[in-house]
Amino acid sequence: MEHPHLKATRILDFHMPDVQELLKSVPQTGSSRVDLQLAHQAIAEQVLPIYTVHEWQPASVTLRKGKGSCSQRIACLEAFARARNIPTRVRALWVSGTFWNARFPWTKWAIPRRILLIWPQFGLEEGWLDLDELYASTEQRISEQAPAFSNTGETLFEALTHSNMDFLGKGCEAGLCPLDQSLSRFVLEQGKWYACRDDLLTELGSFQDSLRGRMFEWIYGQRPSVVSQPSKPAG
């Protein structure tokens, strides 16, 4: 029986040629974490950011198209991880719709009160690693005074390299960061863990199937995300 955190799925279809090409392009460094960082950078370079709510799109299709949403590009990273025998799992985070107000100031009415964010972990030698700590731990980000992700100018996927993206409130729990400076203030509810995003979407549904989701896709679907060059962290 295939391991539930490693098997290919409808979305994480790492057996497909496009994902295999990504796998071949990223050298094996001997460190799963570094491999994931290199894969993240490769995906950021190869897949242009766009607006879309098609959560069920397979990773191979996103890579083939060369464009995708943050969620779709994160799915590509999960597919790469499984192809390299790195386990993945995901958690359901219900995030306040106000988190997206800065991006869509004229269509706030179309944004639901809460939006499902699929947040992955990767199984490394030292344990499960949250996506936001791919490049540095929460403690490191806070000590470096890294800016919290503002959801303006650049996408969440690009910002992983240099922003503090603590949706889970780890910094607050450790007494290192006040709540009003943590992205956890936008999280209305933390759901359970799922072996893969397919299982999560099957149980909880996808925004793309809702009336507002279809309206969003009609208005914004396939449009480029507004991305500027992120400022480099000091040091």
UniProtKB/TrEMBL annotation:
Protein name per UniProt: Uncharacterized protein
